Structure formats: C-alpha cells, structure tokens
What does this fold into?
Amino acid sequence: MSDVLQKAVNNGGLNVAGNKYPVRGWHIDSVQAYYQFNMATLDADTRAELFAPDRPIHTKVRDDMPARYGKGARVSGSLVADGGRIEGTVENSVIFRGVTIEKGATVRNSIIMQDAFIHEDAELDHCVFDKQAVVSRGRKLIGPATYPIVISKGITV
It folds into this structure.
C-alpha cells in the first residue's frame, strides 16, 4: 500500500498536506484509551476545549425529556444525558441517553452507554457498558483502573 501512495505522491497525482489542529487531540485505539478520553471529558476545561463555540459539533438530535432523578439519587462529578432515570448513586461517570440506574445501585468511574439498565443494589466501578446492556440485581463488577471491565451490547450480567 505504501508503494502505491508514495508513487501517487511522487507523480503529482496525490496532493498530501498537513493541517495544524490548535487543540489537544486523543488517539483512541484501545479500550483503555476510550475509557481515558471519556473520563477526561468530566473535566470542565477539557469539555470547553472540545466544544468550543467557534467549532460547533453537529449531531443527530433525539429530543427526549431531561434525565429524571429519584428522591434518593446522588450524582457527583458525572455527565448524565437526557431520557434516563437515576435513582441510585453515580460518581465520576459518563451516562448516555436513556440509561436507568435503579434505587440502591452504585455506578463509579464508569461509562454506561445508551439504554443500559442497572438494576437495584448493583455496584459498578471502572466499567464500560455498551448499548442496552443490563446489570442484574445485586451484581458487583469492579474492574481495575488500568483496564476497565467491558460488557458488550445487549448482554445481561
């Protein structure tokens, strides 16, 4: 492949140029890198850098009601998207759209993707859950900070 590209550049058939990007970038090529990037977005300065008004990000809109917080919900240091229901404890985590975290459940240092369901009294720490994953009642999944536990789309644990 490199021979084909090099030949095209040398013959003038391919124009290769660089572009200076003025802000920090992330190279996401592993679960650990994905996890570290998401945890970095919990920092307000990082979010301001990523979502600068002069560089708008356009995405698909899914108009939904705001996340609902139950009477005993406790949330700190986290990003929580719309359409979900939080009744348990969430700390230092990224919670995507439509996620349900039931009463007595605890989610720490984790990334929970769209429409996942965390049942009552479950405990998660250093986990990445894909869309529509389900954590059974009372289940505990605690991964190391260096290599979070990953649960695939639609899996029940």
